[in-house]
Write a structure and sequence with these properties.
133 residues, alpha+beta, two-stranded antiparallel ribbon, globular
């Protein structure tokens, strides 16, 4: 399983890993996510995390699935009021996640492989690029 997981870095979160890879993974299209956190309450393995907003860290927060812990139960996708969570086959989900991610807390994605919406995001170490409030 380690070879299939192609991300450079994963921020370690003190939660247990899943027993085996699922048949499918939940992938959140963060360009449509409102940060309502409805999916968090339905996740039975607590693998959905709150992510800072793409421009202002404390404003318009998003959510992200920890792909290494997702069990593919479909509950988050079923109950997302904005229909921004899709279920994908395991390999396809791993490949699509960086394209759908605007801001990641869990994975250190390469911005060049991310969705166009990621081009507008401001990195935490580049506060000078943030627009004036």
């Amino acid at each position: 399983m380690a070879e299939a997981f192609l991300y450079d870095k994963k921020i370690e979160i003190d939660k247990p890993p899943r027993a085996k890879p699922p048949k499918q993974l939940a992938v959140i299209d963060q360009t449509g996510c409102t940060g309502c956190e409805a999916c968090i309450s339905f996740c039975p393995v607590d693998c959905i995390e709150i992510v800072p907003g793409p421009v202002y860290r404390d404003f318009m927060k998003l959510v992200e699935v920890d792909l290494e812990r997702c069990i593919g139960c479909q509950l988050c996708a079923r109950y997302c009021p904005w229909e921004t969570i899709d279920m994908w086959g395991y390999e396809e989900g791993l490949a699509l996640a960086p394209e759908k991610t605007v801001r990641s807390l869990i994975y250190d994605y390469d911005p060049e492989t991310m969705h166009e919406a990621a081009e507008a995001r401001v990195r935490p170490d580049d506060a000078s690029a943030a627009p004036a409030p």
